[in-house]
Amino acid sequence: MRILLSPSETKSVGGSGDPLDLAALSLPALTDTRRSVADSLVAMCGDDPAGARSVLGLSDTLAEEVTLDARLWSSPTAPALSRYTGVLYDALDQASFTRATRSRAESRLWIGSALFGLLAAADPIPHYRLSAGTRLPGLGTLRSVWKPSLTAATADWADELVVDLRSGGYHQLGPVPGAVTVDVVTQYPDGTRKVVSHFSKHHKGLLARSLAISRAEMADVQSLLRVARRAGHTLEYTSATSLTMVTEP
């Protein structure tokens, strides 16, 4: 089973790992694309910091993000799961993992990335700033860069249960055929429902945690539903590749 998460704009800084080595990352078929994107980002941020702030959509107060991007190849690394912060990762609450639950989580969790495509939870990466909607010089849209190689790199996942919790922009970088997606809605006392926006990250983080640390083996949607419901989540079967998570206001 694989659970795909969105990354976050906010990330921890620093780390104790050696500088970025693309050969050390999972899905080695993505190495050439990763290098192209990284080289373009580093060159832009090193050669034209002011222009880079505009391309990356950063205010002057976030100028340090450009500096860190320019140092991408020399910055220390940390496991991807601890690099990303924010609402979803707060809900995932990895600090509370035991050795056993961390091992299960690291074997199941993957994180979408505009810079790296997809990362396994333990992959060592530096701090960086790049979002899915960015157009890097000489590369065009990141969707056009990533989609061919990313979808091809995950082709051998076809026989596994893949739960794709990525947001729209990161899902579009490389859809995984046959993956199960989850929509989050709030149901009100009168029975009406509304699609959850910001807090979708929180609820997806809670769901990801329940699935990632479970001792159960989940090979299909029905086994996933059993684990999620035992953990207290309200999940509805919409189709073979679509579920609805119902939350309270």
From TrEMBL:
UniProt cross-references to Pfam families, sorted A to Z: H2O2_YaaD
GO CC, alphabetical: cytosol
GO biological process, any: response to hydroperoxide
Name of the protein this chain belongs to: Peroxide stress protein YaaA
Annotated source species: Dietzia psychralcaliphila
